[in-house]
Amino acid sequence: MTAINDLDEVLEQFHLGQDEFAKGNPEPCKKFFSHREDVTLNNPLSPPARGWDEVAATMDRGAAPFRDGKFLSAETIQKHVTSELAYVVEIERGEAKVAGREEITPWALRATMIFRPEEGTWKVVHRHADPITTEQPAESVVQG
Q1: Could you give the C-alpha distances from 131 to 45, 75, 111, in angstroms and in order?
Q2: Which is it for strands 121-130 and 104-118: parallel, antiparallel or unpaired?
């Protein structure tokens, strides 16, 4: 089996890509995603995306409202790595001008990413991110 890049190194580079995402540029983050048809993305601003074309389009739409931002930190809650799969659960923090506003607004996301080795490096095969970083009441999930 071919050696796989260190997951910590991949995460560090992914976070640098998130700095660009906070400026409205999704391209650096896209490089870390699998381009296979089983890739999935649960973005906090969109319904689930499946397959590379949908994931790429969702990332484009997700980055579009952000500008002049920066990625501040990632707190690792849990990480597990095997030879075939890895996952990381993080609280990600950043700030940006959002949706035409002129003030810099902080944001925090609870994110889970699942990776698999592809061509000698770890690729994201699933990412779920949402703004729930504190305890919520049960009523918060009731719709309508």
Answers
A1: 10, 14, 9
A2: antiparallel
Question: pLDDT tens digits, residue range 22-40?
Answer: 999 999 999 999 999 999 9
Q: Alpha-carbon distance 79 to 112, whole Å? A: 10
Q: How far does Cα 38 stand from its chain's mean position?
A: 16
8 Å CB contact between 4 and 120: yes
Residues present in the chain in total: 144
pTM greater than 0.85 (yes/no): yes
SS (H, E, C) the chain: CCCCCCHHHHHHHHHHHHHHHCCCCCHHHHCCECCCCCCEEECCCCCCEECHHHHHHHHHHHHCCEEEEEEEEEEEEEEEECCCCEEEEEEEEEEEEECCCCCEEEEEEEEEEEEEEECCEEEEEEEEEECCCCCCCHHHHCCC
* Angle at 30 (CA atoms; ends 23, 65), nearest 5 degrees: 30
Domains of the chain, first to last: 7-130 (3.10.450.50)
